[in-house]
Amino acid sequence: MPYKIALNFEDGITRVIDCCTGERVADAAFRQKINIPMDCRDGVCGTCKCFCEEGDYEMAAHLDEALTIEEEQQRYVLTCQMTPRSDCVLQVPTTSLACKTAAAVYEAEVIEVKPASETTFIFNLALQQRIEFLPGQYVNVSVPGTRHTRPYSFSSPSGAAAISFLIRNLPGGVMSGYLAERAAPGDIVELTGPMGAFYLRPVMRPLLLLAGGTGLAPFLSMLEELAKRGAEQSVRMYYGVTRDDDLVELSRLEAFSQRLATFSFETIVADPYSPHPRKGFVTDHIVADDLNLGDVDVYLCGPPPMVEAVRNHIAKLGISPRNFYFEKFNPADAASTAEEIA
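and the corresponding structure tokens:
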């Protein structure tokens, strides 16, 4: 069975290729019409150097000038000499355009639009061709009957025949209007991607997951992956919303707590008149112990004010997490942005 190799380009595009047993990554990419830059195929020039973020592999002989011992220890690789021994994630230090590729376009058929609450839709689609993506990534989704697209994170597992998204019901929103008024089973939707630098990395230490509103979506995809492969490290989530009605997919989170023994979550409602036992903002509930003396990876997805508030709150606690990955999304349907602080 071939290994899946995710190539993450600098412009945010991800392409997942198949690499056969014993095949080198550069050869597999070229076979699938992706030209990773190289000036040789013998481990001499160093032009095809990439960083292997996840996975096992073997490196064939190469010159130290092309890849030093120190770089090898840091998990840099020469794709012309790299033979995978598992699925891998590579950071390619150039754009997808430079490698003569682009985001893939997929077609999907609408299964249903399920109102999760007055403020949130669950949008379920059946794929004509399965999409391999990194849990946490997004695609640009076309709005049938218009020229518009909107970026949404998958809330479903990678490689599934059916996918789902959590979509905020925004009065006057282009996608919201379609979902509320015109969507019908059988409609065809185009998906462009996958994209994004906000995705689950190898779990080497405890995780702190911080979700705001429909920023829960990428975490549902991440939790599917964690539940499938297991996680020995603690996985703790704070999920904050404005009103009680904004809390969605709670049964799914409860199911994850059964499937993944190390997972726990807390919900928080900002409305001061809510009967919810935990009120306020996520920042009112994050304490120093959550940061495990800095030995923690923090993942945060929410609107820009929440992202900035969390960053300021953690700075005030005086503890720097080992890694801090965050994605901002604009509720007005603007594109999301992902960043990393390591």
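(Above: one complete record from the training split.) The chain is about 15% helix and 35% strand.
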